[in-house]
Amino acid sequence: MGDEGTFVKEIQQDLIRAGFALPIYGADGVFGPETERAVMRFQRQYGLEVDGLVGPLTLSKLNEVLDDGGQLETFPLPTGVYRQGDEGEAVKQIQRALKQVGFDPQGIDGIYGPNTEAAVRQFQQQFPALVNDGIYGPNTRRYLQMAIDDRN
């Protein structure tokens, strides 16, 4: 409640596409009472804990609903540390994994740029045990693997 920005707006757009209307404010990028109620309706319909929070399980289910419930593709998560400026196949794997668990890096291009860093930060923000620094390392890898395993 009270969060604002692009990520909130994307969640709102996804809720609307999934059939959970936001008739008063729409996808305005502000997580207010209307958005919270829509999240709670979504959670209730799909058997999730009804807490009004958009955590990993709610994001995963929303992504699954919008993808018609497709299984995640399997691919190994890279070991090591990756941050803005890095490039290559390992970065593509990170980007694919983030997208699959509901944190879209806005492209699978193998470039760890600002969008990938933002997606990593949004993912890290869901777990108090993770440092929200936008850097993919061993701890973020472990939690990302758990999120993928939970979806499959």
UniProtKB/TrEMBL annotation:
It comes from the Bacteria. Residues 5-62, 88-142 form the Peptidoglycan binding-like domain. This is Peptidoglycan-binding protein. It comes from Aquibacillus salsiterrae.
